[in-house]
Amino acid sequence: MAVAVVFLGKLADLSGAAEASLPGPLDWAGLLEALPPSLADEVRGERVRVALNGELLAEKTALRAADGSEIALLPPVSGG
């Protein structure tokens, strides 16, 4: 099985896709390693939030995604 990674907002633009499928299980270090370097640098930023199966993580380094899980990467929201 795999872990679905959903890229929202500008992260989708940087990744070139709205979603990716990565081998699971996946932790924070594994996620960063699997992403292209420029995208990983952006995701490391303090303002990017991480949700696992619809629940925001208080600390993204605590990420532990099992096979079949969904990780959503949420960039800061701008509005007007």
Automatic annotation (TrEMBL):
Transmembrane segments: none annotated. It comes from the Bacteria. SUPFAM superfamilies: MoaD/ThiS. This is Thiamine biosynthesis protein ThiS. It comes from Aurantiacibacter luteus.
